[in-house]
Design goal:
2 domains; Fumarase C, Chain A, domain 2; 8 strands; mainly alpha; Ribonucleotide Reductase Protein R1, domain 1; 343 residues; two-stranded parallel sheet; 7% strand
C-alpha cells in the first residue's frame, strides 16, 4: 500500500519534469545547436530535439512505474500469514476488493519471501536516476565556460568559496550524484535476496532502508529539477558559433554525392579530403567554392553550398524521429497531448 501511493506521487513528479522540458522545447523549437557523438561536434540539431530526447527518457520512466503499479502492486499479500496460510475463515478476495487490489497472491510460501516488487521498483528508480544524471551532466557541461550554451539561474548555482569568478552548478551536480545512491540501493537489495531460502528470514528487514530512501531521493529530485529547467537561459549566438566548429554538415556533403550515384564509401573519402583541406586553410565548408569542391570529386554540383548550410541540414532530416522542424513540431504536439491526457 505504501509503494502504491508513492508510485503515484513519483509519476506526478515525472510528469512535472517532462512538462518543463516540453515547455522549454516549445520556446526554443527553431533554435539550432550542435549535436555530439564521442563528445565531439557531430551534426546540427534543434534545441527542441535535444530537450525532447530527455523528455522521452522520463516518459519511459513513467511508463515503467505505471507497469509496476498495474502488475506487481495489484496483488494482495494479506492472508499468507507466517508461511502456510491461516485456519481463520478469511475472505482474501473480499479484502482485496476493499483495499483496491485486482487479485490476491497465489502461494503463501512465495508471498512471505517475495520482494520482487521492491526490486522492480528499485530497478525503475535506478534507471530514472541514470536519465536524471545524463540530463544533469549535459546541463553542467553546457553551462561551463567552454560552452556557455546556457545559464543556470542563480538560485541553482553557487559561488566558489575561493575563486570569485566561479558559478558552480551545484544542484545539477547533486542530482547527478544521486544516481550512485539509487543504483546502490538496487544492488543492495539484489545482493540481500541472493541465496535466501523460501518464506521469511530476518535478512528481509534490510529491504526497508533502500526502498524508503530511493522514494525520498526521487521525490526530492522532482522538487528541484522542474524549477531549475524552467529558469534556464539559452544563448543562441553561442549555440550557432559552436555549430561552426568541427564541420557538422560534412555528412550532408557526402549525402550530396551519394544522391549523384557516387558510392558512399567513395563520397565519404572525398569529403574527408575536403575537410582536411578546409581545416588547413582555416575555412568553413560553406566557404569552399564549387571549383574547390570539384577538386575532391567531379560529381559535386552547384547546390552543394546550400545543402551544407545549418538550416538545410536540419530541414532535410525528415525521417520519423528526426530533427527536421516539421518532425520536431509533431513530436512537441504529441508530448503535449500525452501530458495533458495523463494529468
Amino acid at each position: 500500500l505504501y509503494l502504491r501511493d508513492e508510485v503515484e506521487e513519483l509519476s506526478r513528479g515525472l510528469r512535472r519534469v517532462q512538462g518543463s522540458l516540453v515547455k522549454l522545447a516549445r520556446k526554443h523549437q527553431d533554435w539550432i545547436m550542435p549535436g555530439y557523438t564521442h563528445m565531439q561536434v557531430a551534426q546540427p540539431v534543434l534545441v527542441a530535439h535535444w530537450l525532447l530526447a530527455h523528455a522521452e527518457a522520463f516518459a519511459r520512466d513513467e511508463q515503467r512505474l505505471a507497469f509496476i503499479r498495474q502488475t506487481s502492486l495489484e496483488e494482495l499479500p494479506l492472508g499468507a500469514a507466517a508461511l502456510a496460510g491461516t485456519t481463520h475463515p478469511i475472505d482474501r478476495a473480499l479484502t482485496a476488493r476493499y483495499l483496491g487490489f485486482a487479485r490476491v497472491t497465489v502461494n503463501s510460501m512465495d508471498t512471505v519471501g517475495d520482494r520482487d516488487f521492491c526490486v522492480e521498483f528499485l530497478s525503475a528508480a535506478a534507471l530514472c536516476g541514470v536519465h536524471m544524471s545524463r540530463l544533469a551532466e549535459e546541463l553542467v557541461w553546457f553551462s561551463g565556460s567552454e560552452f556557455k550554451f546556457l545559464t543556470l539561474d542563480q538560485g541553482f548555482a553557487t559561488g566558489s568559496s575561493i575563486m570569485p569568478q566561479k558559478r558552480n552548478p551545484d544542484i545539477a551536480e547533486l542530482l547527478r550524484g544521486k544516481t550512485g545512491r539509487l543504483t546502490g540501493h538496487l544492488v543492495n537489495l539484489l545482493t540481500l535476496l541472493k541465496g535466501l531460502p523460501l518464506t521469511y528470514n530476518r535478512d528481509l528487514q534490510e529491504d526497508k532502508e533502500p526502498l524508503f530512501d530511493a522514494v525520498d531521493t526521487l521525490l526530492g529530485a522532482f522538487v528541484v529539477l522542474p524549477p531549475m529547467l524552467d529558469t534556464l537561459t539559452f544563448h543562441r549566438a553561442r549555440l550557432l558559433a559552436a555549430c561552426g566548429q568541427g564541420f557538422p554538415t560534412a555528412t550532408e556533403a557526402a549525402d550530396h554525392l551519394a544522391r549523384q550515384g557516387v558510392p558512399f564509401r567513395e563520397a565519404h573519402a572525398a569529403v574527408g579530403r575536403a575537410v582536411t583541406f578546409a581545416a588547413g586553410q582555416g575555412l568553413d565548408l560553406e566557404k569552399l567554392t564549387l571549383e574547390q569542391w570539384r577538386r575532391f570529386h567531379p560529381a559535386f554540383g552547384a547546390g552543394i553550398t546550400r545543402e551544407i548550410s545549418l538550416q538545410s541540414s536540419v530541414e532535410r532530416k525528415k525521417s520519423l524521429g528526426g530533427t527536421a522542424p516539421a518532425r520536431v513540431r509533431e513530436a512537441l504536439s504529441k508530448a503535449e497531448r500525452r501530458l495533458s491526457e495523463n494529468k
